[in-house]
Amino acid sequence: MFIEHPLIRPDSIQEREYQKELASACLGASTLVVLPTGLGKTVVALRVIAEVLVVEGGKALLLAPTKPLVEQHARFLKEQLMNRKVVVLTGEVTPEERELEWIQNDVIVSTPQVIANDLRNERISLRDVRLIIFDEAHRGVGNYAYVHIASEYMGMNGRVIGMTASPGSNMAKIREVCSNLGIENIEIRSEADLDVANYVHDVHMDWVEVEIPPEMKSLSRLLRQLFTRCIRSLVEMGMMTPARPPSRRYLLEVQMAIQGKLSSGERNGSYYQALSLIATAIKVDHAIEMVETQGLSALRSYLEKIKEDAESEEGSKASRTIVGSEEFERLEEMIDGLQMEHPKISRVMSIVSHQINEKPDARILVFTQYRDTCEMVSRYLARIDGASVTKLIGQSGRGKDKGLRQKEQIDVLQRFREGEFNVLVATSVGEEGLDVANTDLVVFYEPVPSEIRSIQRRGRTGRSRAGQVVVLITAGTRDEASLKASERKEREMRKRLRSLKEQLDRDNAKENGAKALKRGQNTLTDFF
Q1: Residue 422 — φ and ψ, nearest 5°?
Q2: Is 131 exposed, middle or buried (0-12, 13-18, 19+ CB in 10 A)?
Q3: Domain ends where: 296, 320, 336?
Q4: Half-sphere exposure of 510 (CA within 13 A, CB side)
Q5: Which residue from 94, 160, 413, 455 has the fewest beta carbons nearer than 10 Å?
Q6: How many other CB atoms are found less than 10 A from the CB of residue 528?
């Protein structure tokens, strides 16, 4: 059975009851749709767009945070939406052309920065817009362009849809998203819901633990000596308390507090010394993470950047402190004599090789946290017979490697979808919303502490066929803490979302009851 609608291409999209229910809810009130990756948030958006355009006319605006996502959504809408004009507006289109395209088209798909700029310069108006869809709605906080657009749209009696696989576990942030975007209702579906389960295939989860070799532990110990010295100095200065573990978050909190005091006019020489010590500790902590969870290539690359910074005229005092330390000198001597990689490398090669041997037409996605690791993993996986490897990384304005422009990212994804490559190694740019084809195997080179990113990574498999997720964990390192953190935050997110949904439902019921009483209509309470 297929979706039947005068504006949707017939016999093209399978009817799914949960998508129909979600679309119906979105037509009734401005709604945040929380639906796991790969289960059809864009189909829900299509259904609502089609219905709004038929019943109310006007325009629909779909916003996504990146150009590859914009292109992906526009391609789908152009394929499926009949008798209505769909256009992509990005910064590559001149302001004059955008102004004309806005007038001439029914559905506009764009990045939010472009729309916010055009609104600010009064090139466009939202008066004729009957529906705005915010993809990856969890971004709608702070000063992000979504917030400005939604603020401009409020009071125009239009509908808003926020779409996300995960809005996060922080209740204040979830409330902020709903408030900023004008959300009145939350609809949640998970793979466990009965109406969704029929469309989800089994996903086998494996957690694979590796031990780092003694040589790498020695490097970590050296770095920890330097880190401990920084922390001890900060404690002696009264900037930190020994009762609290010296995590990166704690260091950043202290850094912000000191910067706040300085900006308010407080003058204290020890503040500047403390800021330098904090910057040193954060850099050393990152180096520890590199050796323990990423590998020697990543550590070498990072230490080289610190050295370059220390030797430059504008270099930081923190980098010079590290390079001038006894530990750094010993570290360089030890690294020079080591010809090994992190045990995760041999394990990921074994996992990918086994998958290709078992299923030669398999599609495999490997996620890495850092770009240097992405480069290294790609090189090693390319040695496997039958592996055709490509990488997906974002743009960067820093350093020699500028990364992939958004057009190049789109090209990489298309070639992976078409089967030219069977292994894609991606950084976080591959997590958020992008259609990276139906993958048989997803490998996390490391766990991520963010529940949003973990959910997005996992959602890349188990949609059209059964899949497998493998998470690599280095024993006794922050990998273990990251895994626990993401699992805890995911549980909290689901609990808090349902709690907020119940509260919104109660608030809406009260509001509707009050409106009914004003109109003199009966409510349930009239019969008791």
Answers
A1: -115, -5
A2: buried
A3: 336
A4: 7
A5: 94
A6: 4
